[in-house]
Amino acid sequence: MQPVLNVEDVRKVEQDLTLEGVSLAELMRRAGHAVAQEVLDLGNLGPVVVLCGTGNNGGDGWVAAELMAKAGAQVEVMTPVEPESLKSPLALMVAQSAVNAGVPFFVAPSRDELDAHLAQAAVVVDALLGTGFHGEPAAPFDIWIDAVNASGAHVVAVDVPSGLSAQTGHAPGGAVFADTTVTMICLKPGLLSGRGRDVCGAIVLAPLAEQAERLVVEADPVAWRCDTADYLETLREPTADVDKYSRGSVLVVGGSTRFPGAAVMAAMAAARSGAGYVTLVVPDRIATVCRTHLLEIPVVGLPTNEEGMFSAGARTEIVKMAEQRSCVLCGPGMGVCADTVSVVSSLLECDVPLVLDADALNALSRMTTNRLDNFPELIRREAPLVLTPHRRELGRLVGQPGEPPSSLTAALEAARRIVWADGGSDICVVAKGESTGCVGVEIALLPKPGPACLATAGSGDVLGGIMAALLARGVVENDVLPLVCAFACEVHGFAANLAAEAHGSRGVMASDLIGNLGLALDAMEEQVSLAVAGVSPEEGE
Ligand SMILES: NC(=O)C1=CN([C@@H]2O[C@H](COP(=O)(O)OP(=O)(O)OC[C@H]3O[C@@H](n4cnc5c(N)ncnc54)[C@H](OP(=O)(O)O)[C@@H]3O)[C@@H](O)[C@H]2O)[C@H](O)CC1
Ligand SMILES: [K+]
């Protein structure tokens, strides 16, 4: 697992390192060295153009430029101001050193001049803006960013692609598209979320100091990015000694006359994700249509109310069935009304692992007038509880109905309000988004994000089915719950990649994921085993 720190905490680690005897100047030297090494490792170098900004990110660029020049590379620096007028004392020092060493530099080139230099460049080092960036890139950096992106050169970004907020992942004024980002000390959330997923390229971590790892952990990471090998704990010994019940029985509760399909897909996804026995319970008015789509999965119809949703009379029977299952998924397509709210509240009282998705979450919002974090007793229970809100649902759960969390870290914070209010029980909030965080009481995990084709109607219903099937396999301890949820997210993403191979990256519908879930599970499990054995997936083929 790799720790992810908020930018303000990275600064704190920088300070801690200085207290432990590693000066900022030394850190900058090592940062520049890491960047230079990355570029030199590309081999067969043509000209390298280093774009240096006015802060310490630019300082890293000047150090790299001097080191690459000394290693024999043909290097030139572009700077918006004369090196001797740099305000950051550190950047000033390293820029003067590079100038004294004979590194050629150009001050405030016009767009045409810049384009001419970039056209010759094999590699561009982007050291314009780092963690000190805020707002939108001002002139001339806005123009320089465009020029880099138009150049076609291989781009190595220093710490963070310029224009991208390392904290939020937002890039309102455009950002450099890097092939590689050499990031200092540790991962930052903006690199892994929002536009960061598009613009960072391969992320190379430069720890800069041997103490960094310890200090980063002490600085209380906002999240941890999962490595494939981490999922070992979620795997089960393969055994032939099973029957359909011991593989896990799942009850899916959902559907309404408006949305029968969501519940059908969730049930199929649970079955394709290894649950041995799946039952779907829906309002009886849609039972027949559901049955026509489900050959193996029994469909139980319970009384329907005037709104086409479960009526109050359905509740007792649902609870009775729930208590006999190893996991319950409630919510897909269910609709929200007083009767479905009462179904959700009864299920919360059942001693069975429970996944609440979609309208079950909206029901929770309604029960708590959008402040679930103020009603922890509602979700305090012995058996595991997984909530899978997308950002709008999450906003509605924590008092921001019209204002969903706008970044990964805002989503993590909102999810933490729920799990921390709840305190000690087995709870995980899977805050879904273009980057998803699985937030437990102790830890927030970031599974590898799936492809963009997952952003399609019904995709969440499929994820709910996967979650339920994995939880149904048996006891999941509190500390492993977020890991199981993260694994489910990666299986979802893997299935999406397989579906995209068949249907194209834009043609995938949620139902296409379902048929690939079994293959995705097998492939993921194999990758985990290989990763634990230290074999890369390519070697394993
Ligand atoms: N993490 C580490 O251990 C180390 C990191 N290093 C590098 O240092 C940068 C952070 O350096 P810092 O000086 O704090 O900030 P930047 O260089 O990223 O940016 C500051 C300058 O950029 C200007 N700025 C800010 N926003 C904009 C904008 N929208 N448009 C134009 N210019 C902008 C800012 O100007 P102000 O007027 O706001 O002051 C500054 O001039 C980090 O990313 C690493 O690369 C060190 O090497 C040490 C180790
Ligand atoms: K940069």
Q: Give me the secondary-structure category.
A: alpha/beta
Largest sheet: 11 strands, mixed
Low-confidence segments: none
Tell me, briefly, the overall form: elongated
The CATH class of the largest domain is: Alpha Beta
β-sheet strand percentage: 5-15%
The name of the CATH superfamily of the largest domain reads Ribokinase
* Cross-sheet strand order for the largest sheet: 1-9-18-17-16-15-14-13-10-11-12
Give a count of the beta strands, DSSP E runs of length 2 or more.
18
Mean pLDDT: 95
Gyration radius from CA atoms, angstroms: 26 Å
Indicate how many domains the architecture comprises: 2
- The helicity comes to 40-55%
CATH topology of the largest domain: UDP-N-acetylmuramoyl-L-alanine:D-glutamate ligase
Which hetero ligands occur in this complex? Answer: ligand LZDS7PUF, potassium ion
Distance linking N and C termini: 24 Å
CATH architecture of the largest domain: 3-Layer(aba) Sandwich
Oligomeric assembly: single chain
H/I helix tally? 22
Tell me what the structure shows:
Residues 227-524 form the YjeF C-terminal domain. K(+) binds at residues 57, 126, 162. This is Bifunctional NAD(P)H-hydrate repair enzyme. Residues 10-216 form the YjeF N-terminal domain. This protein has 541 residues and is an alpha/beta fold. 42% of the residues lie in helices and 14% in strands. The protein has helices at 7-19, 24-40, 56-70, 89-100, 111-120, 141-151, 189-192, 196-199, 212-218, 260-272, 287-293, 315-322, 338-348, 358-367, 376-379, 391-397, 408-422, 459-471, 481-503, 510-514, 517-532, 537-540, and strands at residues 2-4, 48-52, 75-79, 105-107, 123-127, 154-158, 180-184, 202-206, 223-225, 249-253, 277-283, 299-302, 327-330, 354-356, 385-387, 427-431, 437-439, 444-446. Strands 1-9-18-17-16-15-14-13-10-11-12 form an 11-stranded mixed β-sheet, with helices on both faces. β3, α4 and β4 (105-107) form a beta-alpha-beta unit. It is elongated, with a radius of gyration of 26 Å. The mean pLDDT is 95. Bound molecules: ligand LZDS7PUF and potassium ion (K).
